[in-house]
Write a structure and sequence with these properties.
The protein has 451 residues and is mostly helical. It folds into two domains: 15-228, MFS general substrate transporter like domains (Growth Hormone, Chain: A); 241-438, Growth Hormone, Chain: A, CATH 1.20.1250.20. The chain contains 15 helices and no strands. The chain has helices spanning 17-48, 54-83, 93-110, 118-150, 154-185, 194-212, 214-217, 231-240, 242-253, 259-272, 277-299, 305-326, 331-367, 372-401, 411-437. Helix 4 packs across helix 14. The longest helix is centred in the last third of the chain and has 37 residues, at 331-367. 50% of the residues are buried. It comes from Pseudolysinimonas yzui. InterPro entries: MFS_2, MFS_trans_sf, Na/Gal_symport. The chain crosses the membrane at residues 21-46, 52-74, 95-114, 160-182, 194-218, 234-256, 276-300, 307-326, 332-360, 381-403, 415-437. This is Glucuronide transporter.
C-alpha cells in the first residue's frame, strides 16, 4: 500500500454530534421529498398533463425500466469514484455539493414537458430521466456513506439512521398527500394545470435540494490518510467483505417485503374498486415504518442488528401467513396487519443499514481500507433491485390472475392477487433469513487486496 498522505490544512472546529445529526437528517428529508415527488407523480403527470398516448406510455414504461437498470449499475460506479476522490472537503461531501443543483434542475425538467409532437416529447423525457437517475445516484450514495463516516459510534450511528428512515417515511407521506394540493394552488385557477405542477415541483425541488446542502456544510467525515485504491482493488475489497455480501443477498431475497407497496394501489381496486382505500392502507405502512425507525435504535442497545433482522424475517413470515387466512373483508383488520408489516419493515431497514456500516468498519479494522462509497452504493443498488423485483413479482401474479383493469375483479382474480400480497412476502421473508443467518463480523478473515 502507498505511504500515508500528508496535508498542510489547518484544523477546523468540529461541529457537535447533535448539529451533524440534525444536518444529515434534515438533508435526507429534503432529498427524500424530491425523490418521493418524482417517483410518485411522474407517470401521473405524463398521462394527465403531458397527454401521452397509450403508445407513448408504453414507451415511457420501457424507458423507466431501462433507466432503472442503468441507475442501479451507476451506483457502484459512483461509489468507486467517491472512494478514489481526495479533496480538502473529503471524498463524500464534494459529491453532495455538486449534485444538488443538477438533481433540482432535472427534477423540474421532468415536469416541464414542452408542448410539441409526441416523438419530440418522448425524446425529451427519455434524455431528462436518464440524466436525472445518474445525478440522483451522485447525491444518494455519498449521503449514506457520510452517515457511516461521520458517526463511528454504533449507538449514535443507529440513532441517525433511524431518524433518516423515519423522516424519509414522513417525506413520502407529505409528498403523496400534499403535492396535488400544491399544484392546484399554484395553478391560480379552478383546475390544476400542467404549469401548476411545474411550479409545484420548482418549489419542492428548490427547498428539498437546498436543505440537502446542509450535509455538505455541517458534517465532518472521517479523515482518509491513504492514497486512493485502483478500481480493481476497490471491487476486490468489496467482494472480500463477506458480512456485507450476506446483507446484500438477504436483502435481495427479501424483495417480497415491498410487494404491498408495489401492488397496493392495484390490489385495492381489484378488491374494493376504490383507489382512495390505498390512502388508508398506505398510511398504515408509513405509520408503522416511522414508529419502528424511531424505536429501533433503542432496541439496538440491547439486541444486535442480526438478531433484530432475523426476528423481522420470521415474524414477518408469520404475520403475512396470518393475514392470508384472515382475509381482506374487514378493512380495519387489514390496515392493522399492514401497520405491523410496516413496523417490521422499518426495523429491517434500520438494521440493514447499520449492519452495512458495521461491516465497513470491520473491514477497515482488518485491512486498513475504508471504502464507504462503493460499500454504501451497494445499499442504494440493492434497494432499487428489491423495488424492481417486487414490481415483477406482483406483475406476474396479476398476469396469472388475468386481471385487465376496469374495476373490481372476480373472486378468483381477487384471491390470486391476495396471495401475491401475503404468501409471496411470507416466503420472501423466510428466504432472506438464510444469508442473514450467516452474517458474522468477528470470525471473518479478509484477504489482502492491495498487493
Amino acid at each position: 500500500m502507498s505511504a500515508p498522505m500528508t496535508t498542510s490544512r489547518a484544523p477546523r472546529p468540529d461541529p457537535s454530534r447533535r448539529a451533524q445529526s440534525v444536518a444529515i437528517v434534515t438533508a435526507a428529508f429534503g432529498q427524500n421529498l424530491v425523490y418521493a415527488t418524482v417517483t410518485t407523480f411522474l407517470l401521473f403527470y405524463l398521462v394527465e398533463y403531458a397527454k401521452f398516448s397509450t403508445t407513448g406510455i408504453a414507451v415511457v414504461t420501457g424507458v423507466l425500466t431501462v433507466a432503472r437498470i442503468v441507475d442501479a449499475i451507476a451506483d457502484p460506479v459512483v461509489g468507486s469514484l467517491i472512494d478514489r476522490t481526495r479533496t480538502r472537503w473529503g471524498k463524500l461531501r464534494p459529491f453532495i455539493l455538486f449534485s444538488a443543483a443538477p438533481v433540482a434542475i432535472f427534477s423540474v425538467l421532468l415536469f416541464a414537458v414542452p408542448d410539441a409532437d409526441e416523438p419530440a416529447q418522448l425524446w425529451y423525457f427519455s434524455v431528462c430521466y436518464l440524466i436525472w437517475g445518474l445525478v440522483y445516484a451522485a447525491c444518494d450514495v455519498p449521503l449514506w456513506g457520510l452517515i457511516g463516516s461521520a458517526f463511528p459510534e454504533k449507538k449514535s450511528r443507529a440513532r441517525v439512521i433511524g431518524n433518516v428512515r423515519a423522516f424519509g417515511a414522513i417525506s413520502l407521506g407529505l409528498a403523496t398527500l400534499g403535492m396535488p394540493y400544491l399544484a392546484r394552488l399554484l395553478s391560480f385557477g379552478p383546475e390544476t394545470t400542467a404549469g401548476g405542477w411545474t411550479l409545484a415541483v420548482i418549489v419542492v425541488a428548490g427547498f428539498g435540494m437546498g436543505v440537502f446542502l446542509l450535509a455538505f456544510f455541517v458534517p465532518r467525515e472521517k479523515a482518509i490518510t491513504t492514497d486512493p485504491l485502483t478500481f480493481r482493488q476497490l471491487f476486490a475489497a468489496l467482494f472480500a467483505n463477506k458480512p456485507l455480501l450476506s446483507v446484500l443477498a438477504g436483502s435481495v431475497l427479501g424483495a417480497g417485503r415491498y410487494v404491498v407497496q408495489a401492488g397496493g394501489a392495484v390490489f385495492v381496486v381489484v378488491v374494493y374498486d376504490d383507489e382512495a382505500v390505498f390512502t388508508i392502507v398506505g398510511a398504515g405502512i408509513i405509520l408503522g415504518m416511522i414508529t419502528a425507525s424511531l424505536t429501533t435504535p433503542l432496541l439496538m442497545r440491547r439486541f444486535a442488528g442480526r438478531t433484530l433482522i432475523l426476528f423481522t424475517c420470521f415474524a414477518g413470515a408469520a404475520v403475512y401467513v396470518a393475514l392470508y387466512f384472515v382475509g381482506f373483508e374487514n378493512l380495519l383488520v387489514l390496515t392493522t396487519f399492514i401497520f405491523v408489516t410496516g413496523l417490521l419493515l422499518g426495523v429491517f431497514l434500520v438494521s440493514q443499514t447499520t449492519m452495512i456500516a458495521d461491516a465497513v468498519d470491520r473491514a477497515e479494522d482488518l485491512t486498513g481500507i475504508r471504502n464507504d462509497g462503493i460499500s454504501f452504493a451497494t445499499l442504494t443498488f440493492v434497494t432499487k433491485v428489491m423495488s424492481a423485483l417486487s414490481v415483477l413479482l406482483f406483475g406476474i401474479f396479476v398476469v396469472i390472475a388475468g386481471y385487465e383493469g376496469g374495476g373490481i375483479g372476480t373472486p378468483e382474480e381477487q384471491n390470486i392477487v391476495w396471495l401475491a400480497i401475503t404468501l409471496v412476502p411470507a416466503a420472501s421473508c423466510l428466504l432472506s433469513a438464510i444469508p442473514f443467518w450467516r452474517y458474522r463480523l468477528e470470525s471473518e478473515r479478509y484477504p489482502s487486496v492491495t498487493e
